[in-house]
Amino acid sequence: MNFDSLNLHPQILSNVQALGYKTPTPIQQQSIPPILSGKDVMGLAQTGTGKTAAFALPIIQRLLQGPRSCVRALIIAPTRELAQQIHEAIVELCKNTKLRSMTLYGGVNINPQIHALKCGVEIVVACPGRLLDHLQQRTISLEKVEVLVLDEADQMFDMGFLPTIRKILRYTPKKRQTLLFSATMPSEINELAREVLHHPVTIEAGHSAPAALVQQVLFPIEQHLKTELLIHLLRNTEIKSVLVFTRTKHGAKKVALKLEQAGFAAASLQGNLSQNKRLAAMNGFRDGSLKILVATDIAARGIDVSSVSHVINYDMPGTVEAYIHRIGRTGRAERAGEAYTLTLQEDQLLIRKIERVLGSKLEQRKLENFNYDIKPAVSTHHPTLKYARPQRVERTQSRNKKIIQPSSVTR
Ligand code: AMP
Questions:
Q1: Ligand 1 geometric centre to CA of 49 (Å)
Q2: Which CATH code, of 3.40.50.150, 3.40.50.300, 3.40.605.10, 3.30.70.1400, is assigned to 3-205?
Q3: Which contiguous run of DSSP H or E holds residue 104?
Q4: How far is the CA of 175 from the centre of ligand 1 (A)?
Q5: Which of the listed residues 32, 84, 304 should we mutate to test ligand 1's pocket, taking the one with most ligand atoms within 8 A of CB?
Q6: What residue spans define the domains of the chain?
Q7: CATH placement of domain 214-364
C-alpha cells in the first residue's frame, strides 16, 4: 500500500512526501481508511509506530471541507511534551491548507492561549488540566468539535486525569467521531472506551513488541555503583544521543547533575522543572546540543526524537510495559538503537517477565575494565541511611592503578 491509494487531498500528499514518508506504517494503513469513513477507532499502539499521522491525516482531510475559525478537532494528550510534538507534526502535515493548530497546556501564561483562541483555530492539542481551565473560564468552546482524539489514554489514567477527561467530554457534542489510542488496555481504559466509543474499529499495531532493531543488554550492578557504571558506559560507547531513565524526579535531577559534573552535556527532564526549562531541555536534546537527557517515565512518555542512539535504564522500570515503552524511544524510524539496563539483584523477577514477553533471553554483560569491587561506605551518622556515597576512585599517572579514597560525606 502507498499513500496515493488512501484518497488523501493532493496538498496533504505533498506534505507527506515533503516529510519523507514513503509508505504508510502498519497503524496508518489500518486506521486511515476507517477514520476517513467517520468510524470510531480504538488503537492499541505505542508512540513510534506513526500513530500521530495515523489520526492527523484523516482529520486534516476532513477539516479541509467545512467551516473555519472554530475548534473542530480536539486532541488530548497526557504531557506537554507530547502535546507539543503532536502539534508540530500537525503543523507540518497541514502546510498550505490554512488550517491552524495550537497547543493548550499549563505551566505557561494562559493569556496568549486565550488570544490565539479568539483569533480562530481549527485544531487544538491540549493537556487535560489547562483545557478544563479554559472550559471553566469559557475561553474555549468545544460545541463544534467533530473529532476527538484521546492519545496515550493509559498514561492519562496513570496520571490521574480520567475524572478531568470525563468532565471535558461533557463540553463536547454527543455526535462526534472519537479515536482512542493507548499502549496498554487496563480495565479502566476499557471502561472509558466503552463509554466514549460507538461501534469502534479496533486496531493493534506493534503492541508489546519492541522495535526489532533495538539491541538490549543488561548490566548487573550494585546500587552504589550505578552512577560510576553509567559514566563508564557513556565514556566508552559511541553515543549520538542518549535518553537515561530514572525512577524519580529527584533521581533524574541528581543523575543529570553528576553527569554534568563529569563533563557531559546533560540535562534532566522532569515534572519539577519550569515549563521553560522543560522546553529548553527538549529543544537542546532535539537539536543535538544536549547529548544526554535524564528523564522520568512520565516526562519522557511519547517523546519522539528519531536520532536517539541509546536508551539507558538507570533504574529498572516498574512494569514490562514501561520497559518496552522506554526501549521504544530508540530504534525509531527504522534506525538501529541500543538499550542498556542497569539491574539490581532484586530486579530478577521483572527481568524474567520481560524475557517471557520478548520470547528470548536478554544478554547480561559484565565489563572487564570496570571496578565492581568498590564497597559502599556504610554511614554511621544516620541510622536510616543504608549507604553512604561510594568511595571515590582516583586515577594515578598509571591508567590502571587506582587509589581508593574513603569518602566522608554521607547522602
Ligand atoms: P509517532 O508514532 O507518531 O510518534 O511517529 C514516530 C516517527 O515516525 C515520527 O518521527 C514520524 O515523523 C515518523 N513517521 C510517521 N509516519 C511515517 C511514515 N509513514 N514513514 C516514515 N516515517 C514516519
A1: 6
A2: 3.40.50.300
A3: strand 101-104
A4: 30
A5: 304
A6: 3-205, 214-364
A7: 3.40.50.300
